[in-house]
Specification:
This protein is mainly α. The chain has a single domain, classed as Annexin V, domain 1, CATH 1.10.220.80. Helix content is 63%, strand content 4%. It has 4 helices and 2 strands; from the N terminus they run αβαααβ. Helix 1 runs antiparallel to helix 2. The longest helix is centred in the N-terminal third of the chain and has 19 residues.
Amino acid sequence: MEYSYPLDESWSKQEMIDVVNFFSLVEQAYEQGVKREDLMITYTRFKQIVPSKSEEKQLFAKFEKDSGYSSYHTIQKAKESQEGKKINMKTA
């Protein structure tokens, strides 16, 4: 991994940790797959920290540009999947 996660310096330490956890799970969804519930829990927390849709889009775009991983498509796949499923973006 030769990129950094997009963070806002105004966030608290815990908020930064929670956002990093979310982007880390998106990364894992591409590399090995993640449990849908784990991803949705971290996304819900991410939305508490970043309630603005425009800010979310900016962070998602920066992360995708830096990493090649689409947070948007990962979340869309998770929303369309049934509970208990594993989200694996390699097969998307």
